[in-house]
UniProtKB/TrEMBL annotation:
Keywords: Cell membrane, Membrane, Transmembrane, Transmembrane helix. This is Threonine/serine exporter-like N-terminal domain-containing protein. The chain crosses the membrane at residues 143-162, 169-188, 194-212, 224-247. Pfam families: ThrE. GO terms for molecular function: transmembrane transporter activity. InterPro entries: ThrE-like_N (IPR010619), ThrE_Dicarb/AminoAcid_Exp (IPR050539). One of its GO terms (cellular component) is plasma membrane. It is found in: Cell membrane. GO terms for biological process: succinate transport. Residues 12-245 form the Threonine/serine exporter-like N-terminal domain. It comes from Secundilactobacillus paracollinoides. Belongs to the ThrE exporter (TC 2.A.79) family.
Amino acid sequence: MDSDTERNIIELCGHAGKILLESGAETARVESTVEYIGRAAGIDISCHAEMTAIFVDSNHNPTTHLVKVRTCDFNLQKVDEINTLSRQFTANQITFEQLKTGIERIDHAVIDFNWPEKILGAGLVSVAPMLLFQATWQDLTLAFFVGIIGYLTAQWAGRVVVTPYFSMGIGGLVIGLLAASLQGIGIATSAQSIIVSALMPLVPGVAITNSLREIIGRHTISGMVRAVDATMTACAIGAGVIIGSLLGHF
């Protein structure tokens, strides 16, 4: 195999790993997927992934390919599509060129739900915990709308302000303010139940789950980074709720 072909394979492996890591895949999945693609292409590849970079090299070539990574929002659909392509390639169902084209397509694709689906999803997620609390139908309905308003506020703040965690704090503040105010004027029965339920769309559940999987898999550094990020998000939400609740009581 000539050096140009080997370089192209290594660069494609790094590109696939970058998409996986930026979309929220755990480092163990990134490393294994990259190595599977390389071996299926005829190169014995080693991959080491961290939260900010991916290192890919061939075991018989001293050159190391470095890919800088900036983690962003989770997009598990991209993770699933990259995994599907890698499995098809290792099973000889697609060619290397088809794999390259597919990875480029996934990288440039904007995979997202439309706003009506997001709003409905936020409302339904906000309602679910109220069933456990055996809340009144009035509180359940209020939690539906408070959760939607808090989610939309967090999304708006995230587009306006680039400061990390600020948007989640603003979302928590609005939810705490609305819940306390509704209870204060006698419309809601339990502000605490509404707050806990309406916060569900903002809770970093995937980040917490991935951090635990990383730590259990002995990827300690990546696991701790994800855990700290999830903790900072939770602290921002909690601080916003406290401030909003105090303002609502006043």
